[in-house]
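Work Package 3 (structural annotation) set out to generate three-dimensional models for the target panel prioritized at the project kickoff. During this period the team completed the workflow that converts sequence records into discrete structure tokens, so that structures can be stored uniformly alongside our sequence database. As a representative example, we reproduce one entry of 244 residues exactly as it appears in the project archive.
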Amino acid sequence: MDHQQHPQPQQQRGEASSSSSSFSCRLLPHGGYTLIPATLSTMAWVASLAQDGCDYAKLTGPIVSEMTTSSSSSSSFPYLEVGFNAFRAPVLKSDGTWVVDYDSQCLQYDPLYVTMDNYWTAAKLAEFLSLVFGGGGALFLWFSSCFVFSPATWRWAGYEIATACVCQCASFVWFRTAMCRGDGDRCMLFFGSRSDIAAAVFWFVSAAAIFARYPTPGAPKDPSSGTRSGRGAPEVVSARDEEE
């Protein structure tokens, strides 16, 4: 006769329920506080994507005429809208004012007149990394509205957002490029750079909110009674622990 003991059905159901509940999704297990950094990080990511690639700064100076030598316009351009990858020239209206047609395509830089130096390369890399860390961190934070984050996981999300903020600030070394520092040449803040400033601020505030407080997860509701079970975050319980 086989005297091997088999697990009781009730014990098996308890283990399965405990194991599955640790990965269950419930609305705002940490409370509404997690929505603050998640929303701020998303706003920062959207702000950093708002530019179209050739509206980062406004360029003035002698280099403007050099960059537009191949233009069919008979008038000299007073300024150019420049970005990391291209630039855009304004259009002279009949009333004598210069306006920018944002439906027009951006123009590629001519390497004969524009040198993409180390500052330029570093700025583009920093801008890319800020989008990667910031976008990934923002998406990761939204999972806290459904799943329980441990304190270490919560801090890791803060490190991602803080890295995005640092990289976003580092991208402003682009204003040290040779194009912006020539004799009489000047680059001024414009839509794209101002959007990046807003993104850096949003990411900084989001990271500060993460490191300032870890929102302790509340006790899940008891599905049988509809009330709080009084327990903390669910944990996986092994059969050995139950026997002891």
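The CA atoms of residues 129 and 167 lie 6 Å apart.
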